[in-house]
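User: quick one, fold this
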Amino acid sequence: MADSGEITLLDHPVPQAAREGRIRVGVVPQIDNLDPDFTVRENLVVYGRYFGIPKAAMESRLPRLLEFAALETRADSRIQELSGGMKRRLVLARALVNDPDLIFLDEPTTGLDPQARHQMWERLRLLLRQGKTILLTTHFMDEAERLCDRLKIIDHGRTLAEGPPHDLIAEHIEPEVVEVYGEEVESWFSQHGQRLSVRAELHGETAFCYLKDPAPAIANLRGFPKLRFMHRRGNLEDLFLKLTGREMRE
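Assistant:
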């Protein structure tokens, strides 16, 4: 039992009216939990029964859901016959059978190849354009930067930052980053990297130089043919690592 505070889900108090709130919610779990004994079509129809959707209404929704998941030609396929990307799209389509206002997604692209990830992103953007609200958990910083209007970085249960992605990057990270690696990077870092940077870090065989003006550092690096470097804009991964550290987590 809670000892303080209150919880509401889409304006419904929980647990008093949890069922009323859940009817308007869709959930995509991290691990696919499709029923292997059913076909693609049957997985959607059976899930609709949990929400009390009449059979005729569910049958009318099926073409739209299958089209959304790009599985029109696989409606009668068994789950074992689907690729990983197809399964993730089906789980997302299944979460939409009740036409929810709020969709929870737990790391929806984990384990997908680049093509399947981009297909998933396209469908999530479509849902956003339709006015759906999405609560997404992800460890892919490029995914969060591409999809989220607002994000929260949480570490060990503590909120470290919250706000629009690009506002947070501008607030915490220098605008330009030069990554340096190769032979003699440690020597270059100690002699030049720290001096040329607003902020600099050496991790393993890579130096990260955070800069407002990258031109002096790049000009300097051209005099070190054994070093390689990459110039890019500061991004959400830089922000995450600055706030949470670079140590391995179990």
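User: anything notable?
Assistant: The chain has a mean pLDDT of 93.
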